[in-house]
Input
Amino acid sequence: MRRREFFTLFTGAMAWPLATRGEQSGRLPTIGVLWHASNEQEEAPYLGAFRQGLNDLGYVESKSFVLENRFAAERYERFNKLAAELVRLNVDVLVAVTRPAALAAEGATNTIPVVFILVPDPVASKLIDSLARPGRNITGVSQIALDLISKRLQLLKETVTDLSSVAVLVNPNDPGDARRYSEEVRAAAASLNVATHAVEAGTPEAIDVAFSAIARDRSGGVIVTNDPMYFNERVRIGELGISRRVPVISFSRAMAVSGSLMSYGADVPALFRRGAALAIQILRGAKPADLPVELPTKFELIINLKTARILGSQIPPTLLVRADEVIE
Output
C-alpha cells in the first residue's frame, strides 16, 4: 500500500477568485517555474504532479493561467540567468524547484512571490526566517531531506547486518548540501559503528567513476543523497548498484523502481501538488510571508525484491512488513 498523507501547516480558504496583477491588466496570471533538469520530458513526473495540483483546484493551463517553464539543464551557472529572465517576464508567482533554483529566485526579486519546492533545509539556507513565519516574499515545501539521511543508514544497516562501511554519493556542484549530507550521515554512523566516506559525482559520467571507486573500496552500501541529477540518472544508478554488487538506498520511489535496493523518503509528487496549492493561494491574495512552509509527515519505504535476489541480499521479514511497497 502506498501512503500519500501530507500534513499542511497552513489551512486557508480556497474559495475566493484569483486576484493578480495579470487579472487586473486583462491578462491571464502567469506562473513561472525554474526547473533543475533539461526539458519537460526529464521533469515529467514532477511537472505532471504540479499541473495536476493546479487542475485539482480548478485551474487549467492556457484558460486560467499561463505556465512559463525554464530549465537549467543541471548547469548551476544557468539558475541566476533563468531566474532573472522569469522576473523580467513579470510573472505573478515564481516557483523554484531545488535549493539552487530557490537561491537564484531569492536573488532575482524581493517583490515577486516565490514558492520553493524540494529545499532540504530552507532555514539553514537563509531563504526564510522560520518554518512557521517565513517572512519576506518566499515560502514553499521542504522534503526535510537532511533529517532522513540517518534513517536511510539505519535501514541499510538493518538489511546488511555486517555493514561496516558506507559510501555517501554527493554532488560537489552544490557544496553546501554535499557538506551537510556528509556531516549528517557521519554523525548517524558513529552510533552504529559504521565508517562512512563521501564519494563525489557531479555529472552523469562521474557516477560511473564513483561506483567503480565504491566497488574498489569494498563499501558495504551506498546512500544516494537527494539531488535532482541523481533522480534523472536513476536507471544508471540502479544498474551500477547491481553490476557492482553493492546495495543502494535512495530517496525516491522511482529510484527503487529503477533498480535501487530500497528507497526511503517523502512522496515527492505530493510535494509538487502542495507547491501548486501554495501558488494558487498566493494568486488569490495570500502573502508568502504569512504562509508557513509545508512539511511531509508520512514517508514511503520501498523495497525492490528483484534487486535483492540479484544481489543475494536477505531482506529481514520485519522490514518487509514495514514497507509501503514491495516490488516483486
Summary: The longest strand covers residues 30-35.
